[in-house]
Design brief:
12 helices, 8 strands, about 400 residues, Butyryl-CoA Dehydrogenase, subunit A, domain 2, alpha+beta, Butyryl-CoA Dehydrogenase, subunit A, domain 3, single chain
Length: about 400
């Protein structure tokens, strides 16, 4: 399904295609294709981030005033679609799409001047410190405390499911600064140096065997008050802004459609039930793309996104899990191989049985089970839809 483009938009699309043809090396394409987790491995991500930054397209979703290219919503969609079709690596978005917009929207001039350039250059690598044991879907119940001590906060608590914290040198975190008010009103948003004394990171291995997630323990960590974003107690409002970017900050359908196409190419002709499943997934992804395009047109016309945008993450999770389940079945016994070595594009991984795409299938299937959990569980998304879209 294609959006009808005008002459300027077609010229922009052609520029993007030419850039991707020139800049996506075989190594980058292979690294992206053999990624078993959500984001590209650090070596691949760093290389691609540097190329995009040099081009001025790294923070393509940022406004020009914040250092972005100032693209329209349609230009952003064209870029994402062409990247998906070309097989570009998916960069970790904790810094680029989550804390970056928070900084240029709520940060002081000093905070923006210090953090935004270092985010773009990858000098600062960010992790997100929101979820806690017992405080995931019910984020307002978080218990990590930040007690004011002069010009610092003393932070103690336990964060969990912290993606790529083992690579991060900065953490943005929600902490409780006032335990005596309504839970949502007592939360603040802090930026924390991961090298500060009192921080311990422990790995969590996923069912897929990937190390993407971690526990982060904070034991009386001193954080300057100047590293707070917004006012004390404003953290909940800032977090809602951030989570809107996480759940709806990009188009899902282009990547789903591109991955389904690549699966069909790698697995060969599908017959019977497998062919039926592929067609159903194709139709669901195309319907999702139509929803995303309709929302895009609303935004381009200056309107707020319609309530239909609330469904995109929910449907995208289901289609993603369907594609990865289809891959395991389509590759047959070869789709069950599951080497422990990572990354799949590295030298330590044994030779694949059948193909490299088959070798990564089981890990991708298991990793995709988390799609209906992270960024808001499917149950939470359904509740939001029921309230906001249906008025229930």
């Amino acid at each position: 399904m294609d959006l009808a483009l005008d002459d300027r938009q077609r010229a922009f699309r052609d520029d993007v295609r030419a850039f991707l043809d020139q800049s996506l090396t075989p190594a980058l394409r292979r690294g992206a294709a053999l990624t078993s987790g959500v984001f590209a491995e650090p070596d691949v991500a760093r290389a691609w981030q540097a190329i995009l930054d040099a081009k001025g397209w790294l923070v393509y979703h940022w406004p020009a005033a914040a250092g972005g290219p100032g693209w329209t919503p349609v230009q952003r969609w064209i870029f994402e679609k062409e990247c998906a079709e070309a097989g570009a690596p998916i960069l970790p978005f904790m810094g680029l799409k989550l804390v970056g917009p928070v900084l240029y929207t709520f940060g002081t001039e000093a905070q923006k001047a210090h953090y935004l350039p270092r985010l773009r250059s990858a000098e600062h690598v960010w992790a997100q410190g929101f979820s806690e044991p017992g405080s995931g879907s019910d984020l307002a119940s978080l218990r990590t405390r930040a007690v004011r001590d002069g010009d610092h906060y003393i932070v103690s608590g336990h964060k969990i499911w912290t993606t790529q914290a083992q690579f991060a040198n900065r953490l943005f975190a929600l902490v409780r600064t006032d335990p005596d008010v309504k839970p949502q009103q007592g939360i603040s948003f802090l930026l924390i140096d991961m090298a500060a004394p009192g921080i311990t990171v422990k790995p969590i291995l996923s069912a897929s065997g990937d190390h993407e997630l971690n526990e982060v323990f904070l034991d009386e960590v001193r954080v300057p008050v100047s590293e707070r974003i917004g006012a004390e107690g404003q953290g909940w409002s800032i977090a809602k802004f951030l989570l809107e970017n996480e759940r709806g900050g990009g188009a899902f359908a282009p990547m789903l459609l591109a991955d389904l196409r690549r699966l069909r190419e790698a697995a060969g002709p599908l017959d019977g039930v497998l062919a039926d499943r592929a067609v159903r997934l194709q139709l669901e992804a195309e319907a999702l793309e139509m929803t995303e395009l309709r929302t895009l047109i609303e935004i381009e016309a200056g309107a707020e996104p319609g309530t239909r945008s609330l469904t995109t993450k929910l449907i995208a999770s289901e289609v993603r899990q369907g594609i990865e389940a289809l891959a395991v079945d389509a590759f047959g016994l070869a789709g069950l191989q599951w080497p422990a070595e990572r990354p799949f594009h590295g030298d330590a991984v044994p030779a694949p049985v059948g193909s490299a795409e088959a070798q990564v299938a089981a890990a991708r299937y298991l990793n995709a089970r988390a799609w209906s959990i992270f960024g808001g569980t499917s149950e939470i998304q359904l509740t939001i839809i029921a309230k906001a879209a249906l008025g229930l």
